[in-house]
Design goal:
Immunoglobulin-like, 50% strand, 6-stranded mixed sheet, mainly beta
Length: 661
């Protein structure tokens, strides 16, 4: 039997704990040794190497030394001698680095010999290093702390090394030869005090590291406050803000250490307290207006309990904007296009506002346009006549507040009307009522056609055309009538005057002229010729031209059979509709029949208002008047007793077109 100071090892392969008198293990001994003399033991050990050695002979006869691990109790090596000997191998001892020695009979069984052995079974197992503990983390915890993981840092750690807490091994995880971790149960932190932490490595070699003290402290309460700059609703979308948490101890003079966890919305950020117990965090407000919840939590530290300040609920306001409106013109004609340009400027930051702008004339929406680089443009020709107060309204976006521009006044005037041509441009006296079509420019629904000084009932067709019904009253007799268009204010006015020809009801032998050329184009100062054919019975004829352009004259040559229009250097370029009136002088008075329709008109109107008796009387007066006119026109005696010749005129017209380039 042999002992390592704690356990007993027998040559039968038993391991006993003498303190508890309990067999705690066995190792597989297969040799036999009949030693019976005092102190003639056949086993020895080397605690430095963690090895146990047994000498004996195998049942087959040869002498054998076996090595066993003191921890594993497993065979780690065997050495067999090539001789048979009686079963008395005794006094097995260790010597040197790798030597063993024992006594056994020699060739003469009665003369014992000393056998010296050097073998790798002795030096084959290297001693474990003694662990060195440099630091532990954390270095301290609070009393009542829950279970936590302790980390040991050092050198010489083995996979079999363990962290010991007050001499008791903890469930240890091997990380590397320089680090171990273990779970310290909560029960070990119930009481304040100092625990002792060390690292133990088993034999062979090994042992305990130096002890490191681990304080378990009674913590003090803390108070934490959370603040934000800017605060008080001044947080703007996309702007920067700073959060500050100050942690103070409620008793004692210590300054809390550890970390603060900020929670901004759903995001979290951990910041360490500085030497003054303050943690700060700088963030950026969301890009969308709304609310932002902010909270913080001091996590506590050795000697200091955790604390939580009151949370913040900040309003994130949209960036204020200003809208400015400009117009391409502040005075224009009705129907003319104006360009409205509005720019939206943010009060802060470099981001440009997005969204849309609406343009108004008073309360009437003119249109809505999307912003591009903070501006929007609307082209419109829908402004009514008069004074228009224009504004632009920015409806805002997720990051930008709405705003309205100041008003800009745009005066819209009615255009001055202009007549280009008439259709028809002449009629015969006494004819039927007809529709007069006037073409030109600058017409509006309020424009009115005038027959001389009489306003006609006018229909607006477009900005270039008006129509009106001309009654028989207006064309009862031959004449030249002025046609104009009048447009009311603002702006507006009276158009150029165009002459309308009402030819004679009958022109005797004069018939309608026949132009073989109706259009002509000339440059300034040149002459245009229009060949025309008149009835052969027409003799004494003169010509006048209505609606000639400035600087132009017209003549008629019966010999050439043509009407000639001569322009001048001052004649404006343009296209002109010219009415050519042929006037024939005929002998004798105009037949009374010519005037009969005119004379009967009062009778027709009277029939509507008078009874049959009065109408008969009116008819008698009309007949007497006709007879009187007929006798006068047929030629009568003057006071001198001489007969005077009588004449009358007949008119007939045609239309030609002149283009001056």
């Amino acid at each position: 039997m042999i002992s390592d100071g704690t356990l007993l090892y027998t040559s039968a392969g038993q391991v006993w704990n003498p303190t508890t008198q309990v067999e705690v293990g066995t190792f597989p001994v297969t040799t036999i040794n009949d030693t019976s003399f005092p102190n003639m033991r056949n086993l020895t050990l080397d605690t430095a190497l963690g090895q146990l050695y047994v000498v004996g002979y195998d049942t087959t006869g040869p002498v054998e030394i076996k090595a066993y691990g003191m921890q594993s109790h497993a065979v780690t090596g065997a050495l067999t001698f090539l001789f048979n000997a009686p079963p008395e191998e005794t006094n097995l001892v260790r010597w040197g680095k790798d030597g063993l020695a024992f006594i056994a009979p020699g060739a003469n069984t009665f003369n014992p010999s000393v056998y010296l052995v050097r073998s790798s079974i002795v030096a084959g197992q290297q001693a474990n290093p003694i662990p060195v503990l440099n630091s532990i983390s954390p270095g301290t915890v609070n009393q009542g702390n829950p279970a936590f993981t302790i980390t040991a840092n050092g050198t010489g750690f083995l996979s079999s090394s363990v962290i010991e807490w007050n001499g008791s091994a903890l469930a240890t995880t091997y990380v590397s030869s320089q680090q171990l971790t273990a779970i310290v149960p909560a029960v070990d932190m119930v009481q304040a005090g100092t625990a002792q932490v060390s690292v133990f490595s088993p034999a062979p070699g090994g042992g305990n590291s130096a002890v490191t003290d681990f304080p378990i402290v009674a913590p003090v309460s803390t108070a934490a406050s959370l603040s934000i700059v800017p605060g008080g609703g001044a947080l703007i979308t996309g702007s920067s803000y700073a959060l500050t948490v100050a942690v103070t101890a409620l008793s004692g003079n210590g300054v809390p250490t550890g970390n603060v966890v900020f929670t901004i919305g759903s995001a979290m950020q951990t910041v360490a307290l500085n030497a003054s117990g303050i943690a700060t965090f700088t963030g950026t407000a969301p890009a969308t207006a709304g609310s932002l919840s902010i909270s913080a939590a001091y996590q506590g530290a050795p000697g200091f309990l955790a604390s939580t300040p009151n949370p913040l609920n900040e309003t994130v306001a949209a960036i204020a904007t200003t809208t400015a409106l400009a117009t391409s013109s502040q005075q224009l004609l009705l129907g003319a296009q104006v360009t409205l340009t509005a720019a939206v400027t943010p009060a802060s930051g470099t981001a440009m506002p997005t969204g849309s702008l609406s343009f108004y004339s008073g309360s009437s929406l003119l249109g809505t346009e999307s912003l591009s680089n903070g501006a929007a443009i609307l082209n419109t020709s829908a402004l009514p006549a008069g004074s228009n107060l224009l504004t632009a309204s920015y409806v805002g976006a997720s990051s930008f507040a709405p705003s309205n521009s100041s008003g800009v006044t745009v005066a819209v005037n009615n255009p001055l009307p202009a007549i280009a041509n008439l259709s028809p441009s002449f009629v015969s006296a006494g004819g039927a009522a007809f529709t007069l079509t006037v073409s030109g420019s600058g017409f509006i629904p309020a424009s009115a056609l005038y027959w001389g000084s009489t306003a006609l009932v006018t229909q607006y067709t477009s900005a270039t055309q008006l129509t009106a019904q001309v009654t028989t009253t207006e064309i009862a007799s031959a004449e030249i009538t002025s046609i104009t268009v009048q447009t009311p204010t603002p702006g507006g006015g009276t158009s150029n005057l165009v002459q309308f020809e009402v030819d004679s009801a009958t022109s005797g032998s004069a018939g309608a002229p026949s132009f073989t050329t109706l259009t002509a184009t000339v440059t300034h100062g040149l002459t245009a010729s229009y060949p025309v054919t008149l009835p052969s019975s027409v003799t004494d004829v003169s010509v006048s031209c209505l609606n000639l352009p400035v600087g132009a004259t017209c003549t008629y040559s019966a010999a050439a059979g043509a009407v000639t229009i001569t322009t001048s250097a001052t004649t404006p370029a343009g296209t002109y509709q010219i009415t050519v009136v042929f006037t024939e002088t005929l002998p004798g008075a105009a037949t009374a029949i010519v005037y009969l329709p005119i004379l009967l008109l009062p009778l027709l109107f009277a029939r509507i208002r008078l009874g049959a008796r009065q109408v008969g009387f009116m008819a008698f007066l009309a007949l007497a008047l006709v007879l009187t006119v007929a006798s006068g026109c047929g030629g009568g005696s003057s006071g001198s007793g001489q007969t005077q010749a009588s004449t009358h005129v007949a008119t007939s017209s045609g239309v030609v077109t002149l283009t001056v380039q």
